[in-house]
Amino acid sequence: MTTTVAIIGAHGRMGRLVADLIDATPDFTTVAALGSSDPLDGMLAADVVVDVTVQPASQAVVDFAVANGKSVLVGTSGWTAERIAALRSPVAAKVAGDAPGLAVVFVPNFSIGSVLATSFAATAARFFESIEIVEAHHASKVDSPSGTAVRTAELIGQARASLGPVVAPHTDQRARGQQVASVPIHSLRMQGVVARQDVIFGGTGEVLTLTHETLSPTAYSAGIVLALRAMADARGVVVGLDRLIDLSSGAPIAAAAPAATASAEPAA
What we know:
Blueprint: E1 3-8, H1 13-23, E2 28-34, E3 48-51, H2 57-67, E4 71-74, H3 81-96, E5 103-106, H4 112-124, E6 130-137, H5 147-159, E7 178-180, E8 183-189, E9 195-203, E10 206-214, H6 221-230, E11 236-239
Parallel strand pairs: 1-2, 1-3, 3-4, 4-5, 5-11, 6-8
Antiparallel strand pairs: 6-9, 7-8, 9-10
């Protein structure tokens, strides 16, 4: 059985990467390749919608997809926890009503390595009181902090729910970064960078740094294919590639994704 896909933001670098991967994957086919400003009813012919646009276009894409009972994989950065929370009730209503198979899946970063680094950070968060994030992306990335950094900070906050906020002095000063779930995040936007994130843990007499760096857009390929295949079983609102894979298992999480040569902008 072939799953039909509509790509919104298809003419951007990430959209071209998604299209190339779908072309190389036998069980998927693209039936609509739309720009951010194209009429959204072009997605109605597809089984699954992939949103790789920009904010605020992404909000309109997701709202239209949900209203029409179309599952959507969101690779656009900039979705906050509050905006995602606002979708849970209308999505749940559609799942309970005329669209029982509906899913809205948010993936801040399609890189498997990034997902692992974020998972490791959440584990380490229970053992350190002082935690900060430094993330760097290419100069043309318009949003900050990145979706990956926000997701990492939120999971750190969840892991520390019984322990309280991290120790972050002088956060009233702008140079101390933006706090998300009490974790200061510092964003760099500069030439020569693809994507990098350092989560720095400070303890008595020691510092632990967890680093993930994207060296090529092909780092996103396996995660994109994995997420597309997971859409068939996903229901409701799902946040994070980590929710689609078993991080506790020793088994391989996914077969290698087909090669794609498009130059794509990092997802988050």
